[in-house]
Amino acid sequence: MGHAGARVVPGTGVVLGVVLVSLLTGACSGPRRPGSDDAGDTEHSVSSAPATGRRVSPAVNAAVHGAVPPGAVHGTQRWRLSRPARDHQIEGYATTSSGLPGEPVALRVSTSAPSYRVRAYRFGAYAGGDAHRTWVSSRLPGGTQPAARLADAGRRTVVAPWRTSLFVDTDGWTPGLYVFKLVASTGWQAHVPYVVSSPSAVGRTAVVFPVATWQAYNDWGGYSLYKGAGVDRHGWAVSFDRPYPAPGATEMLFGAMPVAVAAERTGVPLAYYTDIDLDRRPDALVGATAYVSSGHDEYWTAGMRARVSAARAAGTNLAFLGANTMYWRIRLEDAGRVVVGYRHDAAQDPAPRAERTGQWRDAEDAAPENELTGMEYECFPVDAPFRVVSPHWWGFAGTGTRAGEELAHLVGVEADRVYPVASTPRPLEILAHVTYSCGGVGTSAESTYYTTPSGAGVFDAGTLRWTCARADRCPSGVTLRAVRFVNQVTSTVLREFAQGPVAGRHPARDNVARFNLPAQNQVPAS
User: Fold this and answer.
1) Which pLDDT belongs to residue 277?
2) From the CB of residue 517, how many other CB atoms can be counted at a distance below 10 Å?
3) By the 8 A CB rule, do 327 and 360 touch?
4) Cβ count within 10 A of residue 145
5) In this structure, are residues 240 and 157 in contact, taking their beta carbons and an 8 Å threshold?
6) Do the Cβ atoms of 300 and 326 come closer than 8 Å?
7) C-alpha span between 286 and 274 (Å, rounded)
8) What percent helix, strand, coil does the chain show, rounded to 5?
9) pTM for the predicted model, two decimal places
10) What residues does 388 pair with on adjacent strands?
11) Per residue in 94-152, pLDDT tens?
């Protein structure tokens, strides 16, 4: 999150993480008796199946492909954790972050409980809840797996050297964002995120989930790209072969789940990928009408950037529904299972210059993120209102907004800014603008829209709380008015972007000169 960026005011990241875990897991909803979640769910008549079996509702497939209106399939909130594991009572990971329908998912689970079950839920536009249960395992024998192991001492890479506990057959599963809910017989619960990726994005809006960023922050086993044993002893390479921090899916629930639900509510044809898919599949965005970056999308490889840049050049519309996007350059190793990022230690990266990691905006071969997003990451922590300055912008239709309206607390905890420099695309329309203090230095935050000669339109929300508002669970005082505003704007933008190149219908009206925006950074770097 914010402490990842170059302009940092330290001191709130841990508190924010604790609040998000509490709110987004549903831990505040009150405990159930141990094991009660093993009872049959009522949202759909899915019986228990062998570990390698499957149970898929045909209605789920029909809804996503347009045969059934969004909301027609019954959903549930039982995907939430009523007793989240905090101290390794149960935890797990998948040996792949994503896979095509029909590709089996290998789950590795460790638990101190005698037995456990696994349930799979798909997030979407369902009546009665945010997810639909698609699969249930039989009761499986428990067992504690080995402790964390340092697989690469030089780069401080930790893995969980576990055996595979079960395989899940995904034959017939609809592409989308899933979560496996692990339920121990002792009542403890955990999450494992997973994406069923799409064979093609032709004619669809491609929703991409930033699992590389989730992994960069993963300190399970003692090391992440931020934390480690001792001062300046953080990792330089992190592995997907380990669980996410307990209870297993906080980053997904904060940034990805709200976007998946919002996108499906629009009813437009969708495709789903992780950013690892984007890197490893050169044709992933070919023919897509739109691309959506979901939430906290901070870590990008050269391949990821190349795919999105090529899509924009082909007329694919881009929506960045967050902030701090594409700030760090990384590379992948071990078939995409290891994220390498030397961050501020870029001089120690032994890779050839063309593959070296660090900030995209670095002076050496600089390629600042605003070349693609329209803005650059500016500050953490931020808590400011979203102040509308272009109320007649087409994406604000139906919101009833007016010039100068301020939506309290919607800008945070990270925010982006427009720099009037050569790398900023033009024409660029500033939609919202607010001034605030970052570390005692005055600066500003914006939300923007620009159009390109290819016909592509690019929207950048410029605040991490955009997806938080979509979740209706912001811990930051975001008002109901702000939630409704974000809901409406997101729906309008995605529906219009799904119609193909938008610039001819909605050209950006450049208004950068209206604002006093210094071209040079005034905020202290970390």
Assistant:
1) 98
2) 18
3) yes
4) 16
5) no
6) yes
7) 15
8) 20, 30, 45
9) 0.89
10) 432
11) 999 999 999 999 999 999 999 999 999 999 999 999 999 999 999 999 999 999 999 99
